[in-house]
Amino acid sequence: MMMKYHYKFEKVLTLKEREKEEALSIYQNAVKTFEEVAEELYRLLKKKEDLEQFQAKKLQSGFAVQEIRHYQRFIVNMDKTISYYQELVLNARNRMNWCQAQLIEKNVEVKKYEKIKLKDYEKFLELQKLEEDKLTDEISTIQYFQRS
């Protein structure tokens, strides 16, 4: 007589695994957003650096005042955009870190329920072995008395 194993917290474990998968997906999206915003910030910083180098070369070779003003306004506007993207990067990094913490927490919860399941299954096997041993003893006893 084989007993079938049933884990009493199976639905909870399934729910926790689903929550973990959801947290992983949210974390991956947060990482993607962070990377995109950080790449845009890098692109803007590089563009500003190139523009400043270009302006420095133009100043050495002679530059119309009108052009100097034009480039200065452009650089000021770039600085505003860079500042905006620095804030976006900071927010995206904070969100990514928060999502990572949530993912770690969900992972720990799943591990706890998996550990409980493993211990419960080991207990089940132990009880099943005891039942089998008991049954074997009874059969041996019956056979002994039938031979006597």
Describe the structure.
The chain is mostly helical and 148 residues long. It has one domain: Helix Hairpins, CATH 1.10.287. The chain is 91% helix and 0% strand. It contains two helices and no strands. The longest helix has 83 residues. The protein is rod-shaped, with a radius of gyration of 34 Å. The relative contact order is 0.14.
Helix content: over 70%
**Would you report the number of β strands?**
0
Query: What does the average pLDDT come to?
Result: 93
From the coordinates shown, what is the CATH architecture?
Answer: Orthogonal Bundle
Which radius of gyration do the C-alpha atoms yield?
34 Å
Listing every helix as H and every strand as E from the N terminus to the C terminus, the arrangement reads HH
Strand content: under 5%
Contiguous helical run count: 2
SSE layout and pairing:
Blueprint: H1 10-61, H2 65-147
Helix pairs in contact: 1-2
Structural descriptors:
148 residues; mainly alpha; Helix Hairpins; 2 helices
Could you write a compact summary of the structure shown?
By secondary structure, the protein is an all-alpha fold.
